[in-house]
Amino acid sequence: MEYSHELIIPNDDIPFRLFLFEGKDGHYVREKHWHRSVEIFALFEGGIDFYINNSCYPLKPGEFMLVNSNEIHSVHAPQENKTVVLQIPLSTFEKYYTDERFIYFSNSSLIQDGEVMGLIKEIYDIYMKKGCGYELKVMGEFYLLLYLLVTKYRMPKADAQLVRQHKKLDSLSSITSYIKENYTAELSLESVADAFGYSPAYFSRMFYKYTGINYKSYLDNLRLAYAYKDLANSDASIGDIAANNGFASSRSLAKLFRKKYGILPSEFRKEKKG
Question: Which of 36, 38, 67, 127 gives 173 a disulfide partner, CB atoms 3.0 to 4.6 angstroms apart?
Fold first, then answer.
């Protein structure tokens, strides 16, 4: 297995994911992976090395890397850095797809790069301060960023090889999107395989080949990610959180939660409140 699929969940209060890069302290490597979202790494301090399709792109302060949907990439951060990351759902750009139901953005440096960096800094600063009406201000700057992406960086005609690579992973992306939309329901491997016209055995092999994880573990991790957010941000009972996120019982949630995070849900909630 050479690469894996990354699960992306937007922030609670905005329709995209925004965060400070987890490799900010340096000595960090994120191995080859892919996801359906369009991703922007904006470097403000330090340095990181990006690898896309085996080509290296060293980033310096004031530069960003735009990663396309289903583009296999890795990140090496040997030194301390300040990097803001935006992960934008592919569906955001649906109106601007090419005839092949595909969209591709240029990674090349353009005259608008400084404006893009300024918008990302503004979005991040506003979001972190969380002042009155911050969501509206963030979305205003975000729409300006989207405008630049589709008018200045979008490639009107993509290379045929890129389209083929995209389609290979996009079929699985459709499956992971379906799982994300229905994760609260009883979602057996057999039912998902049938929904997409595959035999269970073939689906199981294909899923592991392109995600690097088996189907059950992927579904458990997705449910845990949402349960984690609910435990941190709501007052719902642990039993209700378990039921609302597709777990058979609170005991099932507790067992998997402790295995992944090293702590029981009840203990985690006490720590958060403390």
Answer: 36
User: What is the dihedral sign for C-alpha 36, 204, 51, 20?
Assistant: positive
- Does the 4-153 domain belong in CATH 2.30.30.40? no
What b-and-e string marks burial along 36-53, b requiring 16 or more CB atoms within 10 Å of the CB? Answer: bbbbbbbbbebbbebbbe
pLDDT of residue 99: 67
Q: Dihedrals φ, ψ of 117, to 5°?
A: -60, -40
Asked whether the whole model's pTM tops 0.85, one would answer no
Contact between 183 and 246 under an 8 Å Cβ cutoff? The reply is: yes
Cα–Cα separations (whole angstroms), residue 216 to 70, 97, 108, 220, 260: 22, 32, 39, 6, 14
Kindly report the backbone phi and psi dihedral angles of residue 3, in degrees, each rounded to the nearest multiple of 5, phi listed first: -155, 165
- Percent pLDDT > 90 in the chain is 66
The CATH classification of domain 218-273, taken from the options 1.10.12.10, 1.10.10.60, 3.30.497.10, 3.30.70.580: 1.10.10.60
Tell the residue number behind the tokens 């992976």, with chain if given.
33
Where are the domains positioned within the chain?
4-153, 160-212, 218-273
Query: Does 4-153 match 218-273 in CATH topology?
Result: no
Cβ atoms of 119 and 144 within 8 Å: the answer is: yes
